[in-house]
Every structure is written in structure tokens, then in C-alpha cells.
């Protein structure tokens, strides 16, 4: 059988069954796109709690609407399951699992390896597999390809393998899964052709590159670029603060230049799955080639220091009010890593809580997107969000804005807070003065 031509035909007439491993911030919206474009789609996840939620047309990710899930379930083309034996009936399998760092800031490929082993258990001739998890160049060919070829199948002939980095930006009003161009790199030309054919069904544009390694490197470049530039403005923030210059004012002025400048903004630290983590995948891999990634490591140092800098500014502000950080009641506004979403991955707010508690401050938080702080790989605070009222705001020695959600009542907070420390310039841009910027 000509597996390539058969698979291309099945993709074209939408008779191919698509399997998505990992139904999180990347996998779930991608699965919904395939379903709503007419493909039979199976979503796989090891978290048993997610399955009944989805099949009851509910969402566990706030920016993914229940209406869209309802539409997908009503088509009868979508099922969610923990039964990985159903991989055998999938024509295309897309792996969207986490790639965290371990305690030594080295890549933890456990989720990719386990997913690869599950695929290998049920792999058959004629299948296409794509990895979307952010990782170092070489992962697809060094980790996954040998697993599948050990089953006696030849890549590019019996099965097809590619890497296509996810580019999700949760709750971005301008771009969604289907409207963000998709980089694809296949192990062989046939693998690339199938990858483009599949993703072209649901994505506005595919961008082919020469290999999975080039595609893996593309994702890293995108996030290293952001990490380094955010580190730059974070460093300038600290320098300009000593000079009594407002970094936010400087950025607003600089971005009026119509060429040669792109605005990046400081903050309390890096959050999300990509920018705090992905650059160190390249740092780790570069050691294999005796290369030191100095820019990446310096940017990491600066960005990692930011929560400590924020606490230092808070402590100094309390001192001026005749108080010490120890024993002070501190309210952190915002727990998610960026505004208007419920995504807690690598949120700097968690690090702020840890530092403040270690300094013996009495810490609470408020965030309508995160009613209870979930346990993460690093933290388990068992805290609930505080409801904001004038009375509660007045009861705190300081309010620390970490995440600038639009649903905060900034005027009410400003009128009632004893002290405000703002890491996002949220109060100043609304015209409020006498706020400490950090």
C-alpha cells in the first residue's frame, strides 16, 4: 500500500481520524478546530477529571468558551478519553504535552517520553505523528523516531513524523489557534507534505522549514527573543528607578519611532509556560556542543530576580510608612501569569507569595479568575481569593498589583488602599498618582 497517498486522500476528504494527546491550553483548542472543520477527533488526557467536564459541554479553561465545546460535542465527531488504546484507530496523532524544567533547570521530557511510548504501543503503518511541545532541537528525531522505528516501521514510508511548535497566546483578542501561521518541519519530504496537508485544514497558513530541528529551533528563537528583551527593560527599570526616571514613560516615548524599535514591558517576573522555560532547553542542549549561551543565561538571571526586586521596593515603601514587612498585611492583586486569563503556569505571583511569607508577612491574594490557588509542581499554598470591598482594602498595610486584570475596580482600590505597589503601571495609566512602581 502507498501509505502516503492513502493518508493524503483521507486528510483531503476529511475521513482521517485525528488524535490529540494532551487537552490543555494547546491541545484542547486545536482539537476543537479539527472537530469543527469536520474531522472525527479523539482527545486523550491522563487527567480523568477532564473527560466528563468536556463531554458535558463544560470548560475547565476560562477563555475557551463552553459554546464552542458544545458545538464540538454536538457534531458527534468528538470524544475525550483516557483510553490510549484508541490511538490505534487514529490516522494522525498530535502530541501537546507539557515540557517543564526539573529542579536543576534542565529539560524534563517525561511527558514527551511517556506519550511517545503510548503511541509506540499502538502505532500502525500509515499513521502521521506530530509533536507540538516546546523542546530543544533534535527531540523529535532523537526521542520519538527511534521509539517508533523500533516497531519495525520506516519513517517517511510506513509512518510519518514532524514537529510543529505550538504558538498559543491564551485569550489574545487578535489571534486564535486557527489564525496563527503554523511552522512545520518533517523528518522526510513526505512527512512534511503530510504535515502541511493536515494543518492546512485548520490553520490559516503553514510555514514549511527544512527539518524538525529547524522547527524546534524556531520556537526557541521566538521565546528567547522575548525573554532577552523583557530582561533588558527589567534591567533598565531598575537603573532608571535609581535615576528617578519612569521606565514606562520612556517606553511610551520610544515606541513613537516608526522603525527600529519594538516595545517590551517590565513586570514582576516571567510567567506562562514558554518564556520562563523554553530558553533553558537550548542552554542545556548547547552544552553538548561546548557552547555557552550567555545572553540566555543573563536574561534568565535578570528576570528571575524581579520578584525579589518587587519585594524590596515594597519593603522600602512600607519603611517610609513607618512599618516593616515582617507582620504587615499584604494583598496581592492577580494570581494568573497575565491579565484576563486563569492560567497559573509559572506565575510570578506564586514566587511573590513565597518570598513574602519567608519574610514573615501576612499574605493574601485576590483574583476572580483564580478563586483557589491550585497546587503546582513547586507550590501548594491552599489559599482562596479575597473579595474586594472598600473595607477589606483598608485592612491591608499594602496592596501589591502583580497581574493587571481589567475587572479590578482600580478607582475603588486606589481610594481605599493605604499603600499601592504597582508592577504593571496599571494605576498610572488610569491617571492615579502617588503609587509606587516596582
Note down, in words, how this protein is organized.
With 438 residues, the protein is an alpha/beta fold. The chain folds into 2 domains: 3-210, NAD(P)-binding Rossmann-like Domain (Rossmann fold, 3-Layer(aba) Sandwich); 248-437, NAD(P)-binding Rossmann-like Domain (Rossmann fold). It has 14 helices and 13 strands. Strands 3-2-1-4-5-6-7-8 form an 8-stranded mixed β-sheet, sandwiched between helices. A 5-stranded parallel β-sheet has the order 10-9-11-12-13, covered by helices on one side. α5 runs parallel beside α6 and α8 (212-242) runs parallel beside α11. The protein is globular and about 80 Å long. The model has no long low-confidence stretch (mean pLDDT 95).
Descriptive terms for the model:
eight-stranded mixed sheet; 2 domains; alpha/beta; 13 strands; Rossmann fold; 438 residues; five-stranded parallel sheet
Whole-number tally of structural domains: 2
- The number of E-state strands comes to 13
The largest β sheet comes out as:
8 strands, mixed
For the CA atoms, what is the radius of gyration? Answer: 24 Å
Amino acid at each position: 500500500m502507498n501509505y502516503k497517498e492513502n493518508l493524503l486522500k483521507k486528510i483531503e476528504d476529511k475521513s482521517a481520524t485525528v488524535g490529540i494527546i494532551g487537552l490543555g491550553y494547546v491541545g484542547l483548542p486545536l482539537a476543537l478546530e479539527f472537530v469543527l472543520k469536520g474531522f472525527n477527533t479523539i482527545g486523550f488526557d491522563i487527567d480523568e477529571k477532564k473527560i466528563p467536564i468536556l463531554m458535558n459541554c463544560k470548560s475547565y479553561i476560562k477563555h475557551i468558551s463552553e459554546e464552542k465545546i458544545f458545538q464540538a460535542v454536538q457534531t458527534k465527531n468528538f470524544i475525550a478519553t483516557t483510553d490510549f488504546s484508541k490511538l490505534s484507530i487514529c490516522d494522525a496523532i498530535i502530541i501537546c504535552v507539557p515540557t517543564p524544567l526539573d529542579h536543576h533547570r534542565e529539560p524534563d521530557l517525561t511527558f514527551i517520553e511517556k506519550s511517545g511510548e503510548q503511541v509506540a504501543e499502538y502505532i500502525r503503518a500509515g499513521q502521521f505523528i506530530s509533536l507540538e511541545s516546546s523542546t530543544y532541537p533534535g527531540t523529535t528525531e532523537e526521542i520519538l523516531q527511534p521509539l517508533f522505528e523500533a516497531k519495525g516501521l520506516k519513517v517517511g514510508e510506513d509512518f510519518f513524523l514532524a514537529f510543529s511548535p505550538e504558538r498559543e497566546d491564551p485569550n489574545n483578542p487578535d489571534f486564535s489557534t486557527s489564525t496563527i501561521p503554523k511552522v512545520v518541519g518533517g523528518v522526510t519530504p513526505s512527512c512534511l507534505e503530510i504535515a502541511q496537508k493536515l494543518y492546512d485544514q485548520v490553520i490559516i497558513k503553514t510555514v514549511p522549514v527544512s527539518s524538525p530541528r529547524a522547527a524546534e529551533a524556531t520556537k526557541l528563537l521566538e521565546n528567547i527573543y522575548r525573554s532577552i528583551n523583557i530582561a533588558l527593560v527589567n534591567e533598565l527599570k531598575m537603573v532608571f528607578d535609581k535615576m528617578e526616571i519612569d521606565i514606562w514613560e520612556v517606553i511610551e516615548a520610544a515606541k513613537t519611532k516608526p522603525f527600529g524599535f519594538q516595545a517590551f514591558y517590565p513586570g514582576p517576573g516571567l510567567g506562562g509556560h514558554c518564556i520562563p522555560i523554553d530558553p533553558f532547553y537550548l542552554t542545556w542542549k548547547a552544552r553538548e556542543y561546548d557552547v555557552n549561551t550567555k545572553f540566555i543565561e543573563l536574561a534568565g538571571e535578570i528576570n528571575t530576580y524581579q520578584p525579589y526586586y518587587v519585594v524590596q521596593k515594597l519593603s522600602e515603601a512600607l519603611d517610609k510608612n513607618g512599618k516593616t514587612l515582617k507582620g504587615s498585611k499584604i494583598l496581592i492583586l492577580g494570581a494568573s501569569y497575565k491579565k484576563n486569563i486563569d492560567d497559573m503556569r509559572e506565575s510570578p505571583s506564586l514566587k511573590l507569595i513565597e518570598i513574602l511569607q519567608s519574610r514573615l508577612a501576612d499574605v493574601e491574594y485576590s483574583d476572580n479568575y483564580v478563586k483557589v490557588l491550585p497546587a503546582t509542581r513547586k507550590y501548594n499554598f491552599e489559599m482562596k481569593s479575597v473579595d474586594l470591598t472598600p473595607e477589606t482594602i483598608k485592612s491591608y498595610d499594602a496592596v501589591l498589583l502583580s497581574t493587571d486584570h481589567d475587572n479590578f475596580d482600580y478607582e475603588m482600590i486606589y481610594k481605599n488602599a493605604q499603600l499601592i505597589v504597582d508592577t504593571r503601571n496599571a494605576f498610572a495609566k488610569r491617571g492615579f498618582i502617588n503609587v509606587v512602581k516596582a
